[in-house]
Amino acid sequence: MQRMFVSGDNGIPAVRFTGFTDVWEKRKLGTQYKKVIEKNDLSFSTDKIISVANMYFKADESKSDESYMKTYNVFRKGDIAFEGNKSKNFSYGRFVENDIGDGIISHVFDVFRPTVEFDLNYWKYAIHYEPIMGRLLMRSTTKATMMNSLVSKDFLKQELAIPNLEEQVKIGTFFAHFDNLIAVNQRKVELLKKLKQSYLQKMFV
Question: The domain 25-163 is classified under which CATH number: 3.30.110.10, 3.40.50.460, 3.30.70.560, 3.90.220.20?
Answer without folding.
Answer: 3.90.220.20
